[in-house]
Amino acid sequence: MQEIDIVIIGAGVIGLAVSHYLSSGSAKDIVVVEKNSSFGQETSSRNSEVIHAGIYYPRDSLKAKTSIRGKHLLYELCSECGIPHKRIGKLLVASDNESAGKLETIYGNALECGVKSLRFLEKEETRELEPDIKAESVLFSPDSGIIDSHSLMKFLYQSAKQRKVDFAFSVEVIGINRNKDFYEVAAREPGGDIFSFRTGAVVNCAGLNSDGIAEMVGMDAEKHRYRIHYCKGQYFRISDPGRFSINHLIYPPPTELGLGIHITPDLAGGLRVGPDAKYVAEIDYDIDEKDKEIFCDSVRKFLPGLRQEDMIPDTAGIRPRLKGERDGFRDFIIRNESEQGFPNFVNLIGIDSPGLTSCLAIAELVVKELRISQLNNGGGHG
Ligand SMILES: Cc1cc2nc3c(=O)[nH]c(=O)nc-3n(C[C@H](O)[C@H](O)[C@H](O)COP(=O)(O)OP(=O)(O)OC[C@H]3O[C@@H](n4cnc5c(N)ncnc54)[C@H](O)[C@@H]3O)c2cc1C
Fold it and tell me: Which atom of ligand 1 is nearest to the CA of 48?
């Protein structure tokens, strides 16, 4: 039976970042197994492509820490390696007293988290920066930006490949057994054939299926609160972006369910509005045209010139959420499950937003979680 040191399940931006970081250290024999025919076909290519500043999440949460560290690492990597991105800045806009209060809370939270670059704008300044935007109060985040997520993933993929990481595309992991001191992984090939291999370490980066992968090895997803809920986000595109002068990311204050329907300029000069946030039972990426009215009404609060006829259906993505519809905040889970009897089985579960921003910082944490020296001393081969 084939033996490898580390298997990474999933080639979204998280699995790719982990493969990039692990292969730059002393780990050998790394294989990424991906059920689709290429990398980044799921949530990682269906998002807002925003580099977040890390201002919304409770201090000391993994979401706060990895997004704040992740944005620095991402800007650095993008600048060094020519990955298209732009630090365009974000305006958080409040159109009434209640939402103005929310901006104060975000400002306070950002300071607690160590993000000191936010500031409130004077009305005149807002008019100069964004003449088409109407707002009572505006909080400016200069470090927010946009990134070409496909170019980022392509870079991470190519760099890992150059460092001898193997990618097994169109191969689905269907079973994992813990044996004495290794894992036996069963996988299905495109033709339906099933094969198995042994590995000393598993990194679960399976996104929407990450709770299922934890269950395969024998973990109880309900007991550990690992169950993923699907939370869909749809986008509409502004068909003639030249009608508006939008130079920054424009966000309302966040709601209980998401960051609010915002306006996102892309690197090609386009403008998208979205995403909304709806819990769904099945994965489907269709856009419900009937929702256009809700989107339009919500954006018109700060972009009064928008009309429904300006908007055409674009894409949708599904957030892999730990937080159910009525739950409070849930953090990322990034955990070596050795205490549960699964050493060097690292679960990454509930990596919803800001997972793209955080990907490099998450990969750093995974390297720390894995006891690489044990693997290289033969611990992975039984
Ligand atoms: C609407 C929306 C907007 C968002 N906006 C932002 C944003 O602006 N900024 C930000 O920072 N984050 C954002 N996010 C979050 C970000 O997109 C995710 O956190 C990130 O893409 C998660 O990456 P991933 O690699 O974990 O998941 P995925 O990209 O879903 O990758 C998981 C991979 O695992 C594979 N897989 C699953 N099961 C198996 C198996 N059994 N065998 C083999 N392979 C398997 C899948 O095929 C898939 O390719 C947004 C998300 C959504 C949905």
Answer: 8
In angstroms, what is the span from residue 42 Cα to ligand 1's centroid?
A: 6
DSSP secondary structure letter of residue 145? E
pTM to 2 decimal places: 0.96
Q: Would you say 249 and 88 are in contact if contact means Cβ atoms under 8 Å apart?
A: yes
CA distances from 115 to 64, 73, 87, 209 (A): 10, 15, 16, 33
Expressed in angstroms and rounded, the spacing between residue 235 Cα and the centre of ligand 1 is 17
For a mutational test of ligand 1's pocket, the pick from 19, 42, 185, i.e. the residue with the most ligand atoms closer than 8 A to its C-beta, is: 42
Q: What is the pLDDT of residues 168-211, one digit of tens each?
A: 999 999 999 999 889 999 999 989 999 999 999 999 999 999 99
Q: Which of 16, 21, 43 to mutate to test the pocket of ligand 1 (most atoms within 8 A of CB)?
A: 43
3-state secondary structure of 341: coil
Kindly list the structural domains of the chain, giving each domain's residue range(s) and its CATH number in brackets, ordered by start: 2-46+150-227+329-381 (3.50.50.60), 90-142+229-321 (3.30.9.10)
User: What value does the mean pLDDT take over residues 283-300?
Assistant: 96
The residue to mutate among 18, 249, 356, having the most atoms of ligand 1 within 8 angstroms of its beta carbon, is 356
Q: How far apart are CA 196 and CA 208, in angstroms?
A: 23
Tokens representing 96 are 């009434």
